[in-house]
């Protein structure tokens, strides 16, 4: 459904963070516009008030604000209040900004990790349930069509019972120690959280594995450290997983491999077959059924699931990528918001975007991995987040 057909206008998007020199800001704003469901109408684009106003004006925002407090004060009772707020600020501000947005009756799409700690995450989930609002978390790899195809195939039983799972995320931009790290907020635990590697990309592996397999691990054993001499922030983690049905899994996650480019890939194996997906070739999904030839499934091709078709918007042979994955999550949230406006149930596939529970589970994963690593990789249990509704 199109927002204009339902509301007589597009949905109004506000942003906090993601200024003109920000990679993720450009991704969010561009992705939100891709399916023509949103207008970006308000924003706080810098922690510097003067710069925030200047950058907002340069972007042509109808309502640029100097500070987040100014945005919330003005938008609370604004006759054209924003419908959704995208939060792209440093991690230590996610919790308070989310609470203020909920207090103003605004839906939220927040960068991960959800908060700095489990207490904040669980309290935020409780507040969300009390406010009857929707909340998305930017685990954007779940927006890829072939990731959704993989999930649909698992749900349809095509790989059988889960037996093993491996997810690796191998980057190289921190392969060397540099003076610039001193000014990087990602390296400061009071801003980024207790572990750079777990919060920045480790949670992506954890969420992607859970999203496709449909299962959370019951316990984990972790080694979280820095492999670059002289660096205090974590740049590596190796994690073993145990599942309730006896399946096993592993993650290898680092930002410090010399020559590493991106390197997110996942293999999910069951009693009937295996699925493999590599984010550097995102339009392909490899399916290896037991006792049958390997199949190479292509985004936009014939015979794919409704979930993959819903997330496909460009004809086969023309690649879709990272921004399009974000755009699919924005589209999901638009459909959810519009269905609520009409008093209807949304398309079930529109609810495949990452939610507050996924954010809480991510924080539980970080906490368990750190606890395990601090105790000689002792196995730690993982309890799933409670549903907010």
How would you sum up this structure, described in words?
It is a single chain. With 389 residues, the protein is α/β, with parallel strands linked by helices. It folds into two domains: 3-140, 3-Layer(aba) Sandwich (Rossmann fold), CATH 3.40.50.720; 141-381, Dihydrodipicolinate Reductase, domain 2. Helices cover 35% and strands 21% of the residues. It has twelve helices and 15 strands. It has helices at residues 3-7, 23-34, 49-59, 68-75, 94-103, 118-131, 145-155, 189-192, 196-213, 306-310, 322-342, 356-374, and strands at 11-17, 38-44, 63-64, 84-88, 107-110, 135-137, 162-170, 219-225, 236-242, 248-254, 264-270, 273-278, 284-289, 295-298, 380-381. The strands form two sheets. The chain has a nine-stranded mixed sheet. Strand 12 and strand 13 form a beta hairpin. Helix 7 crosses helix 9. The protein is globular. The protein starts with a helix and ends in an 8-residue tail after the last strand. 48% of the residues are buried. The mean pLDDT is 96.
Briefly say what this structure is.
This protein is α/β, with parallel strands linked by helices.
CATH superfamily of the largest domain: Dihydrodipicolinate Reductase, domain 2
* Tally of distinct domains: 2
Low-confidence stretches: none
Count of runs of 4 or more consecutive helical residues = 12
The count of DSSP E runs of length 2 or more, i.e. the number of strands, is 15
Regarding CATH, which class of the largest domain? Alpha Beta
Q: How does the major sheet shape up?
A: 9 strands, mixed
Strand content: 15-25%
Average pLDDT metric: 96
Q: Return Rg in Å.
A: 21 Å
How far apart are the first and last residues' alpha carbons, in Å?
A: 24 Å
Task: Specify the helix fraction band.
Answer: 25-40%
Q: Which architecture of the largest domain per CATH?
A: 2-Layer Sandwich
Biggest sheet: strands side by side, in what order?
A: 14-13-12-11-7-10-9-8-15
Tell me the series of helices and strands, N- to C-terminal. Answer: HEHEHEHEHEHEHEHHEEEEEEEHHHE
CATH fold type of the largest domain: Dihydrodipicolinate Reductase, domain 2
Structural class category = alpha/beta
Q: What's the shape?
A: globular
Q: From the structure provided, what is the oligomeric state, counting identical versus distinct chains? A: single chain
């Amino acid at each position: 459904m199109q927002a204009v057909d339902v509301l007589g206008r597009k949905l109004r998007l506000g942003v906090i963070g993601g200024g003109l020199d920000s990679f993720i800001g450009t991704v969010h704003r561009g992705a939100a516009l891709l399916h023509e469901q949103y207008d970006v109408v308000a924003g706080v684009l810098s922690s510097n008030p003067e710069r925030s106003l200047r950058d907002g004006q340069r972007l042509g925002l109808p309502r640029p604000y100097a500070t987040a407090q100014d945005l919330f004060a003005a938008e609370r009772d604004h006759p054209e209040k924003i419908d959704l707020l995208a939060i792209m600020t440093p991690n230590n501000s996610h919790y308070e900004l989310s609470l203020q947005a909920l207090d103003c009756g605004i839906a939220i799409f927040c960068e991960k990790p959800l908060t700095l700690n489990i207490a904040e995450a669980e309290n935020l989930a409780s507040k969300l349930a009390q406010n009857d609002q929707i909340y998305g978390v930017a685990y954007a790899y779940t927006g890829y069509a072939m990731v959704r195809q993989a999930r649909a195939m698992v749900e349809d039983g095509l790989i059988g019972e889960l037996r093993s799972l491996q997810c690796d995320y191998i980057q190289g931009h921190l392969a060397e120690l540099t003076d610039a790290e001193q000014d990087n907020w990602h390296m400061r635990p009071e801003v980024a959280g207790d572990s750079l590697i777990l919060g920045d990309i480790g949670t992506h592996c954890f969420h992607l594995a859970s999203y496709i397999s449909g299962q959370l691990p019951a316990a984990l054993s972790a080694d979280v450290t820095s492999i670059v001499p002289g660096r205090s922030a974590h740049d590596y983690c190796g994690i073993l997983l145990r599942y309730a049905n006896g399946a096993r899994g592993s993650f290898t996650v680092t930002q410090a491999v010399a020559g590493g480019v991106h390197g997110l890939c996942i293999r999910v194996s069951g009693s009937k077959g295996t699925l493999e997906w590599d984010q550097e070739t995102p339009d392909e999904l490899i399916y290896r059924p037991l006792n049958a030839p390997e199949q190479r499934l292509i985004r936009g091709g014939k015979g794919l699931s409704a979930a993959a078709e819903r997330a496909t918007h460009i004809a086969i042979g023309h690649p879709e990528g990272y921004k399009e994955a974000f755009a699919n999550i924005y589209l999901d949230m638009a459909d959810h918001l519009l269905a609520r406006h009409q008093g209807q149930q949304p398309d079930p596939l529109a609810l495949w975007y990452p939610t507050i529970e996924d954010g809480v589970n991510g924080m539980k994963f970080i906490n368990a991995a750190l606890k395990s690593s601090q105790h000689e990789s002792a196995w730690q249990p993982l309890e799933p987040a409670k549903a907010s509704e």
